[in-house]
Amino acid sequence: MQQAVLAGFVMAGLAPLLHRWLGARTAPMMALLPASLVLWLLWQWPLIAAGETLLLAWPWVPALGVSLTFFLDGLAWLFALLICAIGALVLVYSGDYLRDDPDQPRFLVLIVAFMMAMLGLVLADNLVTLFIFWELTSLTSYLLIGFHHEDPAARKAALQSLMVTAGGGLALLAGLVMLAQAGGSWSLAELAGRGEAVQAHALHGPLLVCVLLGAFTKSAQFPFHFWLPNAMAAPTPVSAYLHSATMVKAGIYLLARLHPVLGSSDAWVVTLSLVGALTMALGACLAIRQTHLKILLAYSTVMALGAMTLLLGIGSRAALAAFVVFLVAHALYKGAMFLVAGILDQATGTRDLTGMGGLRHRMPWTALVAGLAALSLAGLPPLLGFIGKEALFAAVLEADRLRGVILPLAFLAALLTLAVAALMVLRPFFGAVRETPRPPREGSPAMLAGPVLLVGLSLWLGLAPHGLEALVTATVQGLGVREAAVHLTLWHGITLPLGLSLASLLLGALVVRHWEGVRVWSARLEPLMALGPEGGYAAVMRGWLRLAEAQTRWLQNGHLRSYLVMTLLVLLGLVGHALFVRHGTLAAPVPSARGHEAVVAALMVAGAVTACLMRSRLAAVAALGAMGFSIALIFVLFSAPDLAITQLLVETLTVVLLALVLFRLPRFAILSTPLQRLRDLGVASLVGGLISLLMLSVLGGEQLPRISAYMIANGLPMGHGHNLVNVILVDFRALDTLGEVIVLGLAATGVFAMLGLRPEDPASRREARAGEGGHG
Amino acid sequence: MVKSGTLILEVAARLLVPLQLLFSLFLLQRGHDEPGGGFIAGLVAAGGLALFLFAHGRQALRALLKVSPRDLIGLGLLIGVLSTLPAWWWGEPLFTAQWWRIPGIGLEISTPLIFDIGVYLAVIGSVLTAIIALVETDRDDVIR
Amino acid sequence: MIEWLVVGLILAGTTFMLVAALGVVRLPDLLTRMHATTKAATLGVSLIMLAVALHFGEVAVVARALGVVLFLMMTAPVAAHVIGRAGYFVGTRLWSGTLKDELRPHYHPLTHRLDSGLERPDEPSDPTPRDPP
Amino acid sequence: MIGMMWNLLLGLGWLLLTGDFSGANLLTGLVFAYLVLALVQPRIAALSGYAQRLPRLVAFVGFFVRQLLLANLKVAYDILTPPWYMKPGVIAMPLAARSDFEIAFVANLISLTPGTLSLDVSDDHRVLYIHAMFLGDEPALRRSLAELERRALALFR
Amino acid sequence: MNPAVTLPLLIPLLAGTLSLMAWRQPRLQRGLAVAGTGGLLIAGGWLLHRVRQEGILVVQVGAWPAPFGISLVADLLGTLMVVITGLIGLAVAVFSLATSGREHQAFGYFPLMHLLLAGVVGAFLTGDLFNLYVWFEVMLVASFALLILGGEKAQMEGAIKYVTLNMLSSVIFLVAVGLLYGKLGTLNMADVARRVAMLPGDGMVEALAMMFMVAFGIKAAAFPLFFWLPASYHTPPVAVSALFAGLLTKVGVYALFRMFTLVFPHSPGYTHQVLLWGAGLTMLSGVLGAAVQFEFRRILSFHIVSQIGYMLLGLALFTPLAVLGGLFYIVHHIIVKTNLFLISGIVHRLRGSYRLERLGGLYRQRPWLSVLFLVPALSLAGMPPLSGFFAKFIVIRAGLEAGAYGVTAIALLVGLLTLFSMVKIWAEVFWKACPQDVDTPVPVARGELWLMMAPVVGLALCTLFLGLHAGSLYDLAEASAEQLLDPERYIRAVLGPAGEAAP
Amino acid sequence: MPIVILLCLTLLTLALGLVFLRLFRGPGLPDRVVALELFATIIVGIIGLLAIATDIALLLDVAIVMALMSFMATIGFARFLERGGPRDD
Amino acid sequence: MEPVMAVIIGILFAAAIYMMLRRSIVKLVIGLMLLSNAANLLIFVTAGLTRDAPPLVPQGMSAPVGAVADPLPQALVLTAIVISFGVLSFAVVLVHRAWEVVRTDDLDHLKETDT
Ligand code: NA
Ligand code: NA
Fold first, then answer.
1. What distance in Å separates the CA atoms of residue B123 and residue B44, rounded to the nearest whole number?
2. pLDDT in tens, C40-70
3. C to D CB pairs, distance under 8 Å
4. Average pLDDT over residues A466-477
5. Domain range list for chain D
6. Which member of A406, C77, E14, E391 has the greatest number of CB atoms within 10 A?
7. Which residues of B touch E62 (CB under 8 A)?
C-alpha cells in the first residue's frame, strides 16, 4: 500500500511527461491508479467487515519515532474508499473539464499528489506521518486554489487558506507531540487503547486545544470557516474533490480518529457540539445569502462539516452511526453537485445563479442529476441524505449536553439547507430561459459519468440502506464503539425527527419563496460581517505586519550607533549581571606603579582622549600615533621587545595609510547634540568600567598555572630558538601566524579590489583592468 | 600636482632603502633568537619600499621590485603553507619543525625559518599592495 | 670611572632632550621648533647611546648604539626637511621676529616651482632637473 | 668596483649588527648585501674612491661634532632663558655641490647643525634655502655654512 | 600522521594561495575553484568516514603535546560542518563560474572564496580558543573583501556596518580570550574545559561565558545582535551572499555550540536560560523583519536570523534531543539557505532585479526553476517531507518534552510566518504576472544557465534526500550530539587519558 | 646610578608629556607632526636608558627600528600636506 | 602596575566606544583603532606585567634563569596586533571608498541598505 502511495507521488511528478505522450488521455489513464486502489480496498472488505484491522509496517526514522506504517480499519477504509473512488471520477471528469487548458499537466500533478497525500493521511498509523500528509494536503490545496495564479484574487484566497490551515497544522503538530508524550506512543493504533491515560495526563488540556485547532481550521469550523468559500477560486473539479469530498474532511477524519482517545472528556463533548452546531447554522445562513453557485455550495459544505463535528461531539453510538451515514451521503451528493456546477459553469460561462434559468431544456441529464443530488442535499427521501438527516435529528434529540442550544441550531440549518438545495435546482434549470455568456450545451459523457455514478449510489443506498449497515458498523467500531451492529432504514415510522423534517420542509419552502427578500435583508447585515472571523483574519494579518514593521523600524533602523549601543547594552547587561550578581565580592590587587611608568600610562590616556577631542582629523591621527608609541614604550618597560617593535612599526604604517587616505575626506563636524554625547559617554564609561572590573577581578582572583611554563622550558631545547616569542610564533603556534598572515594578505587583496573596482567610474575600472593585466 | 619627492628625499631614500632592506633581512634571520622575525622584518622592508615609492614614484618601485606585490602575497602564503608539509614526509603532524644543518659552514635551515620567510614576503606584498593601490587613487585624482 | 662617564652622558643627554621638549613647547613658530627637535633631540639620543655603548662595552652593543645614532642622523634631517618644507609651503605663518625670507619670492604656489633667483634671462624658465648619473 | 665597496661595507655592517664575527656570518652578510645591492644597483649614485677619503672623513666628523655641540648649547640657552635672542629668517645659499648626492649630503648636514635647517633646493639645484635661527651676523653664518660645505665636499672629491 | 584531519584545512589553503598567485590566469583560477572546493568536499567526506569509525581524531600541530601547541580536533560536529562547508563551497564555486564577472575574478574573487572556506574549516577543526579567533578573523576579512567586491554604493554602506559590528564582536572575543588566559592559564579548549570545572562557583567564569556568548551571538546574528546581517547580506554579488548566508553565521552558531557544551556546560540554569530567551526572540524578530521586506535577498537575510533562533533553541534546551535537533537544523539550513540565495541569483540574472514588485511571471517562463524554488523554500518553512520539517519537528518535540512551552509556541508561530514569507516570494516572483513596465528579460546563454542550475539542483536534491531519508542525518546528528553532551570524551581525546599536563 | 637613571627616566617621560602638550595644542598639523617626531626620538632615548638600567642590550633593537622607521610617519604626513590636505586639519 | 593599567585600559575602551558612537565615519574608524589597541593591551596586562625580564634564553643556557615575562600572551598580542592592522587598513580604505561613493562622512546618511 505504501508503495502504491509513493508510486502515486512519482506518477504525479511524471504527469507532465505522460501528458506529452498521451495528451488528452492522460487524465483517464491516471484515474486507473485510484481505480485499482478502489479494487484493492474492496478486496480487503471481508477483513474490514469482520472487524479486523490491517497493519502495514514500514520504518522511516525509527529513532525519531517516525514510521510510514499504514493502518487500515473501518474508518480508514471508508475514507480511503471515498478518496480513491471520487478521485478516479474527478480525474476522468477533469480530463474533459480542462481539455483545452495548457496547464492541465500541472493540474494533474497537483491533484494526484493531493490524492496520495490524502490517502496517506487517512491510512497513517504514525502521528508524525499523519501530520506530514496533513501538511501536504494543505500545500497541494494552496497550489490548487491558486491554480489561476495570474489572478490576484486566486493568489489571495490561496494564501488565506494556507495561512489558516497551515497555522492550524502547526498547532496540530504541537498537539500531536504532546499526545505522543501523554500517551507514550506515536502509533494511533496503540494510542486508541490509552484514552484514559491521555486524559489523565497533565498535558491533556493543551493538547486537546492544539489538536482541535488543527482539526477546526482544516475542516472550516467556525470561526475558521471563511477560507473555504474563498477557496472556490480553484477549478471546479478541485472544489468538488478537495473542498467538499476529501480535504476538508481531513479534520473530521482526525476528530473521528482521535475520538477513542480524547472523545470521552467533557471539554471534547462541549466544544465539538457547540462549534459543530454553530458552524452548521452559520454555514447554512451564509449559504442562503449567496448567488454564486460554487460559493453557495461551499457554505453548504461548511454546514455539513459542522454537522459532522456536532455528531462526533455528541459521541453517542447513534450519533456516530449518524456521522458515518452523513459523511457518506455528503460525499456523494456534494461531489455530484460540484461536478454539476462545473458542467454548468463550462456550459454557460457563468456561475451566478441569478444569471441562469430554464436550462433543463438544453441540459436534461444534468438537470436530472442535479435534481437528485439536491434531493439528497435537502434530506428528502428516498435518497441517502434523508437517512443522514433523520439520523442527525435523532442523535441531536438524544444528546446529553447542550440539547437546548444545538437543537434549534440544527433545525435552522436543516431548513436553510433545504432552501439552498431547492434554489440549486430551481434557479438554473427551471423558470424562464435566460441569456448566458455561452450558449449552453449538455455536458460530455466523461463529465457526466461522475455525477451520475455518485447520484446513482445516493439513490441506491437511500433505497437499500442495509447495504450500508456493515460499513457503518465497521466504521463505528473504528471509532471505538464495540457494541452491536447498526440498523438503517428509510422509514422509521412517525417519529420526532420526521416531524422536524416536515417542519423544516415547510419553512424551507417559505424561504425559497422569499429568497430575494431574504438576500436583501441579509445584505443589510453586511457591515456586521466585516466584524466577523474573516475581518478578524484580515485584522490579524494587518496587525502583525504592522507590528513587524514597527519592530523592524525600531531595531533595524539604519543607525549604526543604535546598533552599537544595543550590542553594548547587551554586553553590559549579561556580563555585568554575571559579574555582580553571580560573583559577589571583587578582590582588587594593590597597585604598585613607578613614576615613569605612570607617566607613560597617563600619556596613553592623554593620546586617546586627545584623539577623541580633536576637531581636526589629522590631529587625531597624530594623537593616536603618540598613543601607539606610548603603548610601544609600555611594551618595552614590561619586557616585550618584539611587541614594542611590532607596535611601533604598525603604528607608523597606520599613520602613513591614514595620511594617504584622509586628505580628501571632509573635516570633522560636531553632529550630535549634547544630550546624545552625554548618553554615549554614559554607555562608553559603563563599558570601560566593566572592562576594568573584569581585569581587576582576574588579576586579583585565583589564577591557575600557565601552559607557557612548558614553552619557556622547552623553547630552546626543542624549538631551537632563543627568542621564546618567536619560537611560539613560528613553531608552537605557527598555525596562528599562518592565519594572521592570511588575514593581512586578504586585507590587502580587499583593499586592492576596493580601490581598483569602481563602478561609479568606468574609466578607472578599465584602466585598473588594463593595469593589472600588465606587469603588475 | 606635486612631484613625487624632493631631491633630498630622493637621495635619502636611495641610501636608506638598501639599509632598511638589509636591516629587515637581519631582523628576519635572527628573529628566532632575538627580537625580530618575519613579520617585523616584513614591515621594515615594506616601510623601506614605501619610502622608495614616495620618493621615486610607482614606476621606479616597479622597476626595483620586478615582481608585483600581489605575487608576493601569494608566494609568501604559498611558502608558508608549503613549509608545513615536509613534516609529512617524516610522518609527523602538520607544522612539525624540521631542522637541517648544512655540513661545513654550519648553516641551519629549518621549516620555521622557511615559514618565516613566507611571512616576510607576504607581509611585504600585502603592505605594498595596499599602499600602491592607495597611491594609484592619487593618480586617479590627477586624471579627474 | 666609566660609570661616572656614563652617568654624565646620561645626564647631558637627558638635559638636551628636555631642552628639545621645552623648545618645542616654547618656541614661537614651526621652523624654530624644528630646530629644537632635529638637533637637540638627536644630540641627546646620541649622548645616551654613547652612554649605552660605554656601559656595555661589547662590540655588538656598541655597534647597535652607533647604529641608532647613525640612523637617527640619517633620518632626522630628512624628516625635518620634508615636514619643514611642506609646512612652509602650505603657508605656516612665520614668527613675527623673523628677519627676512628669501624663499617666498622665488616660490610659485600654483606650479610649485622653486626658482633659484640665479637664472639667466636666456635660460628656459622650466629647468630640466639633471638625472642622476 | 663601487659595487664591491658597498658590498663589503654592507657585509661588515652586517657583522657589526649581528655582533657575531664568524666566517659563516660574514658570508651570510656578504650574500645578503649582494642581494640587496643587486636589487638596488641601477639606482646607486657614484661613491668612487671611498677608501682614500677615510682620514678626511675622520677629521670631518670631529669638526662636525664640535659644531653640533657648540651650536646646540646656543639653542638650548635661548630656549631655557625667557627672552628670545634669536633672529630667525630664511636665506638662500648658493650651492657649490653639484651631484644630487652631494647636495643632499650638504643639506642634511646643514639641517643637523643647530641653528640652520634646510628647507628646499631650488628646481635648478643651484640654491639651497635655509631657515636660520640666528641671523644676527649673516655674513658670518654664510661663511660658516660655506666652510661646512667645502669640508663636506672634500670628502667626495 | 593523520592527513585526514589536516587535509580539509590544507586544501582550501593551497587552492587559495595558488589561485592568489594565479591572479592573471582566470582559467586556472576557475579550475582551481572547482578542484579546491571539490577536494574539500571529498576530504571532508573522508574525514567524516574516519571519525565515524574511529571516534574523535586529534592532530597536535607541530607535534607539541596537547595543551601547549594547537590541537586540531575532528569530532563529529566539526567534521559534519566541514563536509557541509565543502558542499556549499562546491555549489557556490560552480555557480560563480557562471556569475562572477571577469572583473571580480581579476580582483581576487576566487582566492578570497578559498581562503574564506579555509577560515571556516579552520574554525570548525581547531581545538584552541585563540586559534579560533584567528580563523574567525581570516573568515571575516575574506568576507569583508568579498562583501565590497564590485564597489557599489549599497555595498559600501552595508560593509561599514558589517565591518564595525563584526570587529566589535572580534574584540569582545579577544578580550574574553585574554581574560580567560589570565584566569585559567591555557588556551586549549579541552584544557580550558577541564580547568573551568576546577573552579566551581567562580562568577568570573560565568562572566566570561557571557562575554563569549555576546561575541558569538553577534557572529551568529542572534537577537538583538544581528543588525549587521540584514544591513549587508543583500548587497554583494549573489554567489557571495549565498556563501555568507550558508556558512558565516553558522560558524558563530557552531562556536556557541562548542563553547556551551564543552567549556561552559556547568550552569545551564543560568547560561542556557539566557540562550533560551535569546533563541525565542531571535526567531521572532527575524521573521517579523522579513515580513516587511519586499526584496528577495533581504527577505532571505532576515530569515537567516530567525532560523538561527531555532538552532540556538536546540542548544538552549540542552537535552540530547534538542542538541541533536539544533545540529540537524544547522545542516539543513545551510543547504537550504544557500540554495535560496542561489535561486535569487538566477532570478536576478533572468529578470535583472531582486525587488518583488519588479519581478513576476517566472512560473510561466521557467517552470522548473519554480519547482526548484519550492523545494528549499518549503523546506525552510518546515513543510514536510523536506529536511526542514524534520529539523523543526525535532526541535519542537524537544521543546515540548523539555516543558519550554512559550518558546516552542514561538517556534511554531515563526514556522507559519516563515511560510508566509516564502509564499510571498513564490506568489510575487513566480505566480504573479510579469509587470508591464519591466524591461524585456536579459537573454541568458544556455551554458551559463546550466552552470547556475547545476548547484541549485544538487542542493535541492540534498534537501529532498535529507527529508526522505532523514534517518541518515538523524543518526549522524544523534551521534554528534552524544559526543557534545559528553565533553569528557573530547577532553580525553585531546589531552590523552590522564590529562597529560596537570596544572 | 639607579637613582640617576630613575631620575632621568622620569625627566624624559615628563619631556614626553611636554611634547604631547605641543601635539595637543597644535596649532597646525606640521606642529603636531614635529611633536610626534620628537616624541618618537625621546622614546629612543628612554629605551637607551632602560637598556642601561636593566642591563638588557637587546632593547636597543627596539631603538634601532624606531630610529630607522618612525620618520616614515612624518613622511606620510608631509605627503598629506603636499597633496593639499588643509594644514590646520 | 596592573591595577593602574586596568583602569587605564578601561578608559581606553571608554574612549574607543565614545568615538565609535559618533556620527562621523572617520571617528568611527579612529574608535575602532583605539578599541583594538585597548584589547591588545588588555591581553598583555591581564597575563601579568613583568619588569626587566624579556622572554629570551641567554646564550649558553637551555632555559631562562629566574622568572621571565610570559611569552605566550606576547605572541598572542603580536598576532592580534597584526590582525587588527590588517582589518583596520581595510576599514580605513573602506571609509575612503565610502566617501568617494557616498560623499558623506555622516553615518546618518548611510541608512539606505537597512530601511
Ligand atoms: Na632665550
Ligand atoms: Na531562514
1. 10
2. 888 899 999 999 999 988 878 888 898 899 8
3. 174
4. 83
5. 2-47, 56-154
6. E391
7. 93-97
Give the closest ligand to the alpha carbon of residue D83.
1
Q: At what angle do helices E109-125 and E76-99 cross, to 10 degrees?
A: 170
ω into residue F27 within 30 of 0, thus cis?
yes
**Beta carbons within 10 angstroms of residue A55's beta carbon:** 12
For E22-69, the pLDDT digits (tens) are 888 888 999 999 999 999 999 999 999 999 999 999 999 888 888 999
**C-alpha triplet A38, A39, A40: angle, nearest 5°:** 90
Cβ–Cβ under 8 Å, residues G42 and A709: no
Residue E60 pairs with which residues in a beta bridge?
E71
Residue of B nearest to D101 (CA): B11
SS3 C15: helix
Residues C31, D131: C-beta atoms closer than 8 Å: yes
B99 sits in which H/E element: strand B99-102
Q: Which residue in B16, F16, A607 sits closest to C41, CA to CA? A: F16
Helix, strand or coil, per DSSP, at residue E380: helix
> Per the domain annotation, does C103 fall within a domain?
no
pLDDT band at B144 (very low <50, low <70, confident <90, very high): very low
Host domain of residue C29: 2-92
Distant-in-sequence, close-in-space partners of A774: CB < 8 Å, separation ≥ 6: none
**pLDDT level of residue B138 (50, 70, 90 thresholds):** low
Asked if A288 and A522 count as a contact pair (C-beta separation under 8 A), the reply is: yes
- Residue D114 CA, ligand 1 centroid: distance in Å: 15
φ and ψ of A571, to 5 deg: -60, -50
pLDDT, tens digit, 9 for 90 and up, residues D100-121 = 888 888 888 888 887 888 888 8
Q: How many domains does chain C have?
A: 1
Residue type for position G23: R
Q: Locate the chain B residue with the closest alpha carbon to F76.
A: B54
Q: What is the pLDDT of residue C130?
A: 42
- What count of other Cβ atoms lies within 10 Å of the Cβ of residue B93? 23
pLDDT tens for chain F, residues 1 to 89: 788 888 999 999 999 999 999 999 878 888 999 999 999 999 999 999 999 988 888 889 899 999 988 888 888 888 877 776 554 55
The answer, for A585 touching chain E at a CB cutoff of 8 Å, is no
Phi, psi of B107 (to 5 degrees): -80, 135
Task: Please count the other Cβ atoms lying within 10 Å of the Cβ belonging to residue A683.
Answer: 20
Check: CB of residue A688 under 8 Å from CB of residue A604. no
Residue C125 forms part of a structural domain:
no
Report the gap between the CA of A606 and the closest CA in chain F (Å): 8
Contact residues on chain B for F64, CB-CB shorter than 8 A? 23
Cβ separation of C74 and B2 shorter than 8 Å?
no
CB A370 within 8 A of CB A337: yes
Q: Note whether residue C104 is domain-resident.
A: no
Instruction: Categorize the per-residue pLDDT at G8 as very low, low, confident or very high, splitting at 50, 70 and 90.
Output: very high
pLDDT, tens only, C17-40: 999 999 898 888 888 888 888 888
This model's pTM is above 0.90:
yes
Residue among E113, C72, E183 at smallest CA distance from A697: E183
Q: Record the cell numbers describing residue A692, joined without a space.
A: 576594568
| Rounded Cα distance, E233 and E144, in Å | 11
Which chain C residues contact residue F45 at CB under 8 A? 13-14, 17, 41, 44-45, 48
The answer as to whether C56 is a domain residue is: yes
Q: Quick check: E62 and B71 CB within 8 A?
A: no
Q: In sequence order, which residues have a C-beta less than 8 Å from that of residue A281 and are 6 or more positions away?
A: A303, A306, A409, A410, A412, A413
Smallest-distance ligand from the CA of E419: 2
Question: Are there at least 3 beta-carbon pairs closer than 8 Å between F and E?
Answer: no
How far from the centroid of its chain's Cα atoms is residue B55's Cα? Answer: 19
Cβ of A656 and F69 within 8 Å? Answer: no
